[in-house]
Amino acid sequence: MFCQFNKDAIINLQNYDKPFLNYGYSLGFNQYDFQFEYKNDIGQDILVNTTFGFNVGLIGEMRVNKFLDVRFEPNLLYTQRTLGFPGFDNENDALREIRSTYINFPLILKISTLRFGNWKPFISGGVYTAINLGSKEDSLEDNSSGTFRMRKSVNGYELGFGIEFYTEYFKFTPTIRGVFALTNEIIPDEDPNSPWTGNIEAMRTRGVFISFIFE
Q1: Confidence of residue 42 (pLDDT cuts 50, 70, 90)
Q2: Is residue 192 classed as helix, strand or coil in its secondary structure?
Q3: Which domain holds residue 115?
Q4: How confident is the model at residue 14 (pLDDT cuts 50, 70, 90)?
Q5: Closest among 174, 199, 205 to 40, alpha carbons compared
Q6: Per the domain annotation, does 9 fall within a domain?
Q7: Which band of pLDDT confidence, cut at 50, 70 and 90, is reported for residue 1?
Q8: pLDDT for res 2
Q9: 133 three-class SS
């Protein structure tokens, strides 16, 4: 049983959280979006069609005390977004498919409550830096040739919460986390009046991912 609420419940893994270092891995899925800032309010926003992606990662946890842990969680995630630009009759010009593979390096502070039997809730927050392998930052082509370019290096912060469940053999943790990029990720087209990027002041990733951690 993951959790037992009666007073005679068997307490699993009683000493699991006492070592200074713990390790694990995570599996999950994500949904990433973009937040746009425009130079001029012309009443025609760029549409973003999102899909579900997946993520896998490793966990390294350093215990500070019974309430605080610092985690390093390098992970690999894949996501896909389709941008719809207004004012085009041709679908090839109106749509840009953005496929991104990120190598993500978050440093997270986890704040936990006291353990209740075989479960323990927590909140978390931290900063991350990521490498977007699908950015096309170095491409000599731009949207006039059908290529949408983004920054390869992205920085931001994450906020989340979860519950740790202590089973007989391992700790299982479902967690939900929001991702908020601080980096302006767009690379403008060569034409300053480009119908794709000319009115974009900034474009930043926003997303949510659900992970299942095994330790």
Answers
A1: confident
A2: coil
A3: 21-214
A4: confident
A5: 199
A6: no
A7: very low
A8: 43
A9: coil
- Asked if residue 13 belongs to a domain, the reply is no
Q: What is the pTM of this model?
A: 0.88
Q: Output the six-digit token pair for 68.
A: 């605080």
- Residue pair 108/70 in contact by the 8 Å Cβ criterion: yes
Overall domain count for the chain: 1
Integer Cα distance of 201 and 186 in angstroms: 9
Whether pLDDT at 17 is above 60: yes
How far apart CA 87 and CA 4 sit, in angstroms, is 58
Largest CA distance in the chain: 71
CATH code, 76: 2.40.160.20
> What gap in Å lies between CA 53 and CA 151, rounded to an integer?
20
**Segment 96-121 mean pLDDT:** 95
Which residue stretches of the chain are H helix? 91-94
